[in-house]
Write a structure and sequence with these properties.
311 residues, 8-stranded mixed β-sheet, two-stranded antiparallel sheet, 16% strand, 10 helices, alpha/beta
């Protein structure tokens, strides 16, 4: 027959183990939540000031989360300078312009250096123009200062298929260009006026930000791409090099200590949970991203791609 005292002792030890286990689990949950919050917000809240590093890669489209992150960055007193790492062939005119203006707003408070990667062309270069200084590699593909609008005419194919389209419009230029009908001379002139107006805006940005006269800016803004070596004497970039060159300039010209830590600025997106957190953490460790990129382009684009050619 078991002793009551022994049973009580066993139960008490079992209860203590369960309490300890739950305490340990609670500590892990709190620690994980704290780390997740710090990671989700982009930067830890401890330590002295730092240099922020923001990557702009892929095709540039509207990104409200990125703009919110940039606005928060502009108000963060811990960020003493910004490295803008650009590897992009461009994107929509509006998205590139918006990002350019947001970079300029940040540059009103702290120095910003654009570090160009493999490609920083069209809208990618427009974003770089917002920085105080542009650093490129010798082999960087940049320039492609121009705007395009692409359309197609499938009316001939529809006729072969026995499909006829009928449209009733209030004015002749409504819904022009339209892939369901040939582009008229009047429609072509109207579209060209839009393209030329946006191109003039781009050229004006180049002239103002690169301190070039209007004629010089127009000559180099014919849509062609340049290597970093070619872009330097043309005044499109300030220096050949990489992130080290950018940090040297910040220390030399803007008084940012050379040993100040550099921390990545991560874009905080609503709805990202633990699955996205683990994916971003893995990407941070490997330097790669395995998440698919959603691409939507509509309207005017400032985009360079060798398969598209230049117009």
């Amino acid at each position: 027959m078991p002793f009551p005292e022994a049973d009580l002792l066993v139960d008490r030890r079992r209860l203590k183990r369960q309490v300890s286990l739950w305490r340990f689990a609670a500590i892990l949950v709190l620690l994980g939540a704290s780390l997740a919050a710090a990671y989700h917000l982009g930067e830890p809240h401890w330590g002295r000031g730092h240099v922020g590093r923001l990557a702009v890669s892929g095709v540039i489209t509207d990104d409200a989360a990125r703009l919110r992150t940039l606005r928060a960055l502009a108000e963060d007193g811990r960020v003493k300078a910004l490295l803008l790492r650009i590897d992009s062939p461009g994107g929509t005119v509006v998205a590139s312009e918006e990002l350019h203006r947001q970079v300029r707003a940040i540059a009103e408070r702290i120095p910003v250096v654009a570090v160009l990667g493999q490609t920083a062309a069209s809208g990618g270069y427009m974003v770089a123009l917002g920085a105080d200084r542009i650093v490129a590699r010798e082999g960087t593909v940049t320039g492609s200062i121009g705007v395009l609008m692409q359309t197609a005419d499938v009316s001939g194919l529809l006729r072969k298929l026995g499909v006829s389209m009928e449209q009733i419009r209030s004015v002749p230029l409504k819904a022009v260009p339209n892939p369901l009908e040939p582009l008229t001379d009047e429609g072509r002139r109207a579209v060209r006026e839009i393209i030329e107006d946006m191109h003039a805006m781009f050229v004006r940005m180049v002239a103002e930000r690169r301190r070039l006269d209007a004629d010089a800016a127009l000559r180099i803004s014919d849509g062609r791409v340049y290597t970093g070596r070619q872009a330097l004497p043309l005044g499109l970039v300030d220096e050949l090099g990489g992130e080290d060159a950018a940090l040297d300039w910040l220390a030399r010209e803007r008084g940012v200590p050379r040993d100040m830590p550099v921390r990545d600025v991560r874009v905080s997106r609503p709805g990202e949970g633990w699955r996205d957190l683990s994916s971003r953490a893995f990407s941070a460790l490997t330097g790669k991203s395995y998440l698919p990129e959603r691409l939507t382009i509509d309207g005017l684009v400032a985009l360079w791609h060798p398969d598209l050619g230049q117009r």
